[in-house]
Please model this.
Amino acid sequence: MNTLVQQTIGWVDNRTGLRTAIRKFFLEDVPASTGWPQVFGSVALFLLLNQALTGILLAFNYSPGPGDAYSSLTYIIHQVAAGHLMRGLHHWGSTLMIIVVACHMLQVFVYGAYKKPREVTWALGVVLLLITLGFGLTGYLLPWDNKAYWGTVVTTQITQQVPFAGAYISTLIGAANGVGALTFARFYALHTLVLPALMIFTVAAHLTLVRRHGVAPAAPDDQHKRPFYPHQLFHDVVAIFIAFLALFLAAALIDVPLERMADPTDTTYVPRPEWYFLFLFQSLKFFHGPFEVVGSVGLPTVAILAMLAIPFIDRGRMRKLTERTAAIAVAILTIAGWSSLTLAAVASTPASLTSPPPTALDSKLVAKGAVLYVKAGCDSCHQVNGVGGHIGPALNRVAKRRSKEWIERHFVAPGALSPGSIMPPYRFPKEDQDALVTYLFSLPD
Model:
């Protein structure tokens, strides 16, 4: 039996070189000074795979369209086996991935691992950070709740401020006439097709250059080497396990916020971006009128260009970490500035956003009612947000036309209240009836 296994492995290796490549990878020499600070790249790669897998699983039950997106998401959360967990892993995974990628960039900067010959490796790392933020930005709209809608409205308004190209970008993302079905389709395509392709290409190029130039030693005079396995692999596996444990606990114990379905008429809603964009949101308060473009476009552009230029500005020899006082000071100031702006934005959050809004009704009932709406087949005859059948009336303005009591009676005897109606009678359990009515009254006009 062992001979057969060895022959099979040898045959596969002879045709593909897979076994040789794996052995070479694990036995490749790395600087002896590597350790815990070098684990962030491996953790980021693990989180990227988590996002890909959970995204695919969510897509099996997700309907990419306004209105339908919200209903399908509530269906995933409440009806699909482990759907709540998958959404939590995807949501919190994106948050953790941004943190880890930022920490990886910070570690490389502090250690000076961007110096010759790793300038292009660093530049690709900056691109990967931007793509990661792009995933967060495009995925923000996909739940199609009020927070997602109005947050995207602010984002698209900022893109219109880009000098010379603002109108073109706005048209490209389908927001020239406001956020709607076209915007949703463009964001979904970017999130599931364009950005993943860019990410795969950039990660492959980044890893190829890391293999080509090797891991930068923590100390420039460290010439000692040791195999990647088992020392550094142990550090990477432990770090990945800690990241997965934190991610799993967050997904299992912390509910991902989901507000009521997007309401374009709710002009009283105060949009707030995700926490990793709060610093930019707060910095915009320092610029007014014609200078607003400086905060929304100018400063972020300068920051990105400065990051790309770092290897060409700091061209000195590699130094020990204890000698890189300027880099450490810049890192501390950057963290302090980001933290201050973020905390200031959190402190200025309106009270109406820190507690359930009175117009949001009971979010759990709304979510349950949205699932029942689809499960009972209501969408085959009625429209919500322009999506659904045409046999019955659209339901977006039902709260303006009918009382809750009338709708409840209509479930039981539709022909008596609407002569000629072909709707069959429905006798829902009381809790299901309350949920469905609450959902109908949560719909925007």
In short: The first strand starts at residue 29 and ends at 31. The mean pLDDT is 86.
